[in-house]
Design goal:
Elements: E1 2-7, E2 10-13, E3 18-26, E4 34-40, E5 47-52, E6 59-61, E7 69-74, E8 79-84, E9 93-100, E10 108-109, E11 113-118
Length: about 120
């Protein structure tokens, strides 16, 4: 079981920055969890923003955020981060943190944090 709690969302002007945090608690330390950030805009499906493997050595980003967003993790603090720069109104969404025991499928989800980017 993994529990995930996101924080750091809020209202920001276009061009601004936010850093989201996701604190995770793990009961099975034998599983090297992949962590991911996803987002869901109003009326749209949930889409992947980025993923990071256990060591932090491998990352993936959606094309829409490449060069603007950075995902990182601190396993000693059980926290994964999403640094978001050069924010655009189209980045407005509820952002979800997720954990999976493999790269393709996320088994556990947080409740989300709302990011609103004003123009």
């Amino acid at each position: 079981q993994v529990q995930l709690v996101e924080s750091g969302g809020g209202l920001v002007h276009a061009g601004g920055s936010l850093r989201l945090s996701c604190r995770f608690s793990i009961q099975d330390f034998n599983v090297l969890y992949v962590m991911g950030w996803f987002r869901q805009a109003p009326g749209q499906e949930r889409d992947v923003v980025g993923k990071i493997n256990f060591s932090g050595g491998s990352t993936y980003y959606a094309d829409s955020v490449k060069g603007r967003f950075t995902i990182s993790r601190d396993n000693a603090k059980n926290t994964v981060y999403l640094q978001m720069n050069s924010l655009r109104p189209e980045d407005t969404a509820v952002y979800y943190c997720a954990a999976g025991d493999n790269w393709e499928y996320m088994n556990y989800w947080g409740k989300g944090t709302l990011v609103t980017v004003s123009s």
